[in-house]
Amino acid sequence: MACGEAGRSPDKGMDMRKTFAVCAAFVASAIGTHAVHAEQFRVELSAPAAEDSGYEGRLILIIASDDTREPRFQVEASYDGAQVFGLPVTDFRKGQARTIGTSVPGYPGRKLTDVPAGTYTVQAVLHKYDSFRLGNGKVVKLPAARGAGQNWRKEPGNLISKPIKVDFDPKRAGEIKLALTDVLSPIEEPKDTEFVRHFKFKSDRLSKFWGRDVYIRGHVLVPKDFDKHPEARYPLAVFHGHFPDDFGGFRTTPPDADIKCEPSKRFSNEPCYNRTEQQEAYDFYKQWVSPDFPRMLIVEIDHSNPYYDDSYAVNSANIGPYGDAITYDFIPALEKQFRGIGEGWSRFLYGGSTGGWEALAVQVFYPDQYNGAFAACPDPIDFRQVMVTNIYDDKNAYWREGAFGRVAKPGKRDYLGHVSLTIEDENRLELVLGDKTRSGGQWDIWEAVYSPMGADGYPQRIWDKATGVIDPAVAAHWRENYDLRHILERDWQKLAPKLQGKIHIYVGDMDNFYLNNAVYLMEDFLKKAQPAYGGEITYGDRAEHCWNGDPSLPNSISRLRYNSMYVPKILKRIEAAAPKGADLKSWRYK
């Protein structure tokens, strides 16, 4: 494949024997081994020209040893994931070149020369950014939410190359070429069915913040015979969690007869976990339409945004007033369309992990608007244990340091305590995938939600992404605005009457991400708080992420039963808190 003018690197002073070159041309590459030894890759980008100016975004190059699936789907914070390199690009036009050199950080290998000689499948992706003129006048360049939940591997409009198989040797001269030829297609919005309806809401608050139209979407599970009972008004359960492309965990047919079994990497008791998931979804449908199941609404919310697959459902200096937009605008509008009761006693929150934090945070920040939060395996709810880091007292997020040595802080474990990655691993990968908090990763979204906005319009770093050194001023901002245990303890006398009986937390004591640590600290406060909080906190023995509070089931099943697990608890809260004259009958039809 001839590169011609497109092959000229703009970094003329760089040692081209140790670089990846990225250029634009009309070249398509098919899978097939290129029997050439090389120490550099030239990735030719053959995408259409941008509408008004050159492309801006993150250029990502992936090298994979596994040829059974595309390299872009193998990037993960893991010692056995694909190798990845990333570079910011601006005004990137067809026919130009960009170069990734040895100074560009990679993961797991830190630089190109760390990649051992071998046969690999390689692919390039351009994760496209848009310009946002915020309501405060600042201009930021971020990946717009385009329907894939901020998944750069799938986001419509991103540019990708066809994977090719190559022989690579960093010690021998030569080059291997790729071509970014394909533009990822738009994703169709889901269609309404008998039980799942869809709601699209334009938020004036968020549109003002972002300087463009912003929508929140709801995937609503409606009860049996919803259209036959126009007189009924329903309680609402908000199932918080990561980006939903539709309502999940619900299907009206038995598992596929010809399903190809996929064993769970996480649960050794599940040799055909995809079938188990389908069976659980079908069992929930049968329960949903059964005569004794309460008729109610459940909504999963798509509030994906330029930083992540969801907003964390609170107001944020960097992401905008999502808390107010969801609670004061979106929820009432949804209840109006789907005949919700529309009062605080009839609304409930639950979810796991990110959704667990959101459920609890929303209940704390909007105590009168909801009647109970059931938070499973919540993201850190006390920042003295952000997984394993006390951001107030520790100096470094990556290391425990002594006078003569240091040890890495763990980031993930299994139920036996075996560690598979470190905190630094995850953060290094995020830095490769995007600077300025733009990776779309877990640590970056905490930073985007919790941190103040910097002078450049991007979130202030909680710690240096390369070294792990913590900024105490940013940590103090986190504490006063988003540390849920601190906020509850600080404001308990005011909040306690509003939260009586509404806080319920469930977590495995071997949570993979050490999320039980912060729950212990929350429990220490709540069990001595006066007046008493009146809720529950329970732990699953050797249970991992994301145990839902049911000790009778294995973790592999309990994590699939959020929608049915909390219904009895919701009914109990309704009986305890519904005001005199409340509608307790119209939604209990058979």
TrEMBL record:
Entries under InterPro entries matching the protein: AB_hydrolase_fold, Mycobacterial_A85_antigen
SUPFAM superfamilies associated with the record: alpha/beta-Hydrolases
Protein's UniProt name: Esterase
